[in-house]
Amino acid sequence: MDNSWATSWDAFGRDLHLDLAGPGGLRLSLTRALREAARTGRLAPGTRLPSSRTLAADLGIARNTVAEAYADLVAEGWLSARQGSGTRVADRTPPRPAPARRTPPGRPAPRFDLTPGTPDVSAFPRAAWLTAARRALHAAPYDALGYGAPQGRPELRTALADYLARVRGVRADPGRIVICAGFMQGLALVARALTAVRGPSRTAPAVATEGYGLGFHRDVLARAGLRTVPLPVDALGARTAELPSYEGVSAALLTPAHQFPTGVPLHPDRRAAALDWAVAHDGWILEDDYDGEFRYDRQPVGALQGLDPDRVIYLGTASKSLAPALRLAWLVLPDRLVDPVLAVKSGGEWQSGTLDQLTLAEFMAGGAYDRHVRGSRLRYRRRRDRLVAALAERAPHIEVSGIAAGLHAVLELPPGTERSIIEAARWQGLELNGLHAFRDPAARAMPARDGLVVPYGRPPEHAFTGALEALLRALPPDPSADTV
């Protein structure tokens, strides 16, 4: 194949921004501008410069002036010129990088990052996504290439309404769905809308949050002007029957399908108690359904929103099912919160990329999303089974708690051992979190637990075996084993 056209276009079509102001004539000004661009790295080594004819025409100066400036810089070593390859920025010895952050002497650098929150992004369905993107772009109306509306593309909202009703039991129509640039934006929008709906008051309204949870969720609520108070969590999930005793609480943020991080579902009686409280106290339930599609021992429990769509604000995301980089999440709102949320979002909030929205809509409507989730569910179930089997064989004294669901498991530890085991894991090249990292410091009345939060969903397939072996080496020996 003849690539001569590519070479000639490379020489002809490159644009350069050069400031020729300053003392001296044009040749001196051009030489100085090119030298500075190469010295500062704005023109990287190897960059091919326009031909002298092209640059002269762009700058409106004589070709000889450009040729002489190039020659001066070749002589100085800033540029190189060879027959057939044009004029390029010369290669130079790079500056010495700053010293890398050192790990403590003797401790290996982490080989496996097992902090939770990310799926196996190496399994992202690139080919199927690309096919959906081509179809979506081909069918996209012209208005889809504009700035977009705060509520999100109707194509995606329609696809989500169908999918969420079918798979999660969510009761929604497209007009009650708002597309967000990630879960955190969705939570912030809801928090600010709830503050606006309540109106100004001397005491900031409060949100009950689970005693074990993500600290940055509490931070988002606090930045919106909401106080957070911890709701204790035990083996049956959040203790929602205590909500009526919480003065000033107008909303509760829950993970009913799979409590994060303890891994238990919210007991049916406590689901009912949460909804009863919301109705009786004109309150709201914020349902974080972060991994509700991934249940391995039975059909997933339906979303809480399906029981009372006028009291439950449903928050979902593609971060766990596809990839966090998509920055796509969604809110399913009660009717009377749609306008307040859109009013907040219209005030300068980031919009999700329209083309990604259209692609996800096509991905869902064509069945590729269902196929990908089904394949991911099978892969994660096998990994969880391997983890449980390995523990049963080599560390039977370590119990796996919580249900067979989601992208992580909790390993129960003897009291007082969590910190030392996490340190032992670091010596094995593992970066791990314990339950203490997710315990709300304000939940002083809730008993503390020692445990490891192990995300079997995060490592790529080729790294899972090594991560599992390193984890097993870090666990303490069975104290009841015969040591004679």
Note down, in words, how this protein is organized.
The protein is an alpha/beta fold. It is built from 14 helices and 17 strands. The longest helix is centred in the C-terminal third of the chain and has 27 residues, at 368-394. The protein is globular, with a radius of gyration of 29 Å.
Class derived from helix and strand content? alpha/beta
Low-confidence stretches: 1-12
Strand fraction: 5-15%
Main sheet summary = 7 strands, mixed
Q: What is the molecular shape?
A: globular
Radius of gyration: 29 Å
**N→C terminal distance:** 74 Å
Taking strands numbered 1, 2, ... along the chain, how are they ordered across the largest sheet?
Answer: 4-12-11-10-9-5-6
Helix content: 25-40%
Write the layout of secondary structure elements.
Blueprint lengths: L3 H10 L12 H14 L12 H8 L3 H14 L2 E4 L3 E4 L22 E2 L12 H14 L14 H15 L8 E4 L2 H16 L7 E5 L4 H9 L3 E5 L1 E2 L2 E2 L10 E6 L13 H13 L3 E5 L23 E6 L11 E4 L2 H11 L8 H12 L2 H27 L4 E3 L7 E4 L5 H10 L2 E2 L1 E2 L16 E4 L6 H14 L10
Parallel strand pairs: 3-15, 5-6, 5-9, 9-10, 10-11
Antiparallel strand pairs: 1-2, 4-12, 7-8, 11-12, 13-14, 14-17, 16-17
Helix pairs in contact: 2-4, 3-4, 5-11, 6-11, 7-8, 7-10, 13-14
